[in-house]
Design brief:
The chain is an alpha/beta fold. It is built from 14 helices and 17 strands. It has helices at 3-14, 19-28, 34-37, 50-53, 55-71, 89-97, 104-107, 117-127, 213-227, 272-278, 289-295, 298-306, 311-325, 330-333, and strands at 17-18, 78-83, 108-113, 132-135, 146-151, 160-165, 168-177, 180-185, 206-209, 229-238, 247-250, 253-255, 265-267, 270-271, 282-283, 287-288, 334-340. The chain binds S-adenosyl-L-homocysteine.
């Protein structure tokens, strides 16, 4: 029995699946899901993320959140949260960098939103001896000041795709062609959720919707607006996205999203506009990751780390700095959106929205 067998049986019984249903099973099926069953990060895995590239990433994000906490009067206790923490590397780097901020650790209650049991165990190890609480639903974030980071979390949430057909939309779905999976299109239907997109698209354009994202952004923004706090959301994507951005990555190579379901990482670009619009808090301007990290002082931090290094270790540090910040690497493709209370200023490193 494989995930392909299960999906094929489901399609025979219920008809073609939305891309979101397909993505959801591929990533999080309890027995066969990509994240549910493995640790996919790092050189030996399928892909590398910013916190796995360099400790500087988590350190600088941690100091930015701690500065926002100080600026807002050091509320205690507060929730220190991460969405989709992967191996827990970012939180471990954040905790180490903020050790010297008086009162920050004593007041922090760490909460991790993570669905994968394999990764929860890795995260617990990574942050030990610090303790965390794990949740699967953002609504379980405590009613308290919230300082939150989410790196490459929203891109893993299932999306639906719709092709414009006159004033209606045809949903792109996953069906069967013989025994293999194939893409198809449902009959045209009106889609009230896409009413606004009739104004900025043409016949034949494809738009994506991430059904879970606005609810999560609303919950985070509501905690921040009501109790104080700040959120840093980092991902690849843009404002008002257009076109098919579903992609599959395996062994650091792009592959067919329908080949070997459950064996590749599936992601889609994040529509930051949908997150900002859903949040009752204020939002920053959407800022390229490279610009943000430069504002936070990544070059000075890299120079300090470089001082005792030479040879291969120094080369690796220079390469990591470049990879995180350079416009041809992650610096421009990845964007940062901040949430802050409407009565407070934006986070360090981010212009007001
Ligand atoms: N932030 C980490 C990992 C990014 S990968 C890093 O930068 O390295 C995406 C993470 O989100 C994984 O930890 C994955 O298990 C988690 N995740 C994906 N979908 C999720 C969902 N619906 N609910 C909770 N966690 C999810």
């Amino acid at each position: 029995m494989s995930l392909l067998d299960l999906l094929a049986a489901r399609i025979r019984a219920e008809g073609p699946l939305s891309i979101a249903d397909y993505m959801g099973d591929c990533l999080m099926h309890p027995r066969f899901g990509y994240y549910a069953t493995r640790d996919p990060f790092g050189a030996a895995g399928d892909f590398t993320t910013a916190p796995e590239i360099s400790q500087m990433f988590g350190e600088l994000l941690g100091l930015a959140l701690a500065q926002a906490w100080v600026d807002q009067g050091r509320p205690a206790p507060f929730t220190l949260a991460e969405l989709g923490p992967g191996r827990g590397t970012l939180m471990a780097d954040l905790l180490r960098a903020t050790r010297a901020v008086p009162g920050f650790h004593a007041a922090a209650r760490i909460v991790m939103l993570e669905a994968s049991p394999v990764l929860r165990a890795r995260q617990a190890q990574a942050i030990a001896p610090a303790q965390a609480t794990w949740i699967t639903d953002s609504q379980d974030l405590p009613q308290a000041p919230l300082y939150l980071v989410a790196n490459e979390f929203f891109d893993a949430l299932p999306i639906r795709q719709f092709l414009r057909d006159g004033g209606q939309w045809r949903e792109r779905r996953v069906g069967l062609v013989g025994d293999a999976l194939g893409f198809g299109l449902a009959a045209p239907m009106p889609q009230p959720a896409l009413a606004a997109r009739l104004g900025d698209t043409r016949d034949g354009d494809l738009v994506e919707l991430c059904p879970a994202a606005p609810g999560i952004a609303r919950t985070i923004g509501a905690r921040i607006e009501a109790h104080g706090g700040a959120a840093l959301i980092i991902d690849y994507g843009g404002w008002h996205s257009l076109g098919d951005t579903l992609q599959a990555l395996r062994d650091h190579q792009y592959c067919d999203p329908l080949a070997d379901p459950g064996q590749a990482d599936l992601t889609a670009h994040v529509d930051f506009e949908a997150l900002a619009q859903a949040s009752p808090s204020a939002s920053s301007a959407l800022t390229p990751q490279g610009v943000f990290l430069e504002h936070l002082g990544i070059t000075a931090r890299a120079q300090a780390l470089a001082a005792p290094l030479s040879g291969a270790a120094l080369d690796a540090l220079v390469a990591a700095h470049r990879r995180l910040t350079h416009p041809e690497e992650m610096g421009q493709l990845f964007k940062v959106l901040g949430f802050h209370p409407s009565h407070a200023g934006p986070l360090p490193g981010l212009p007001a929205g």
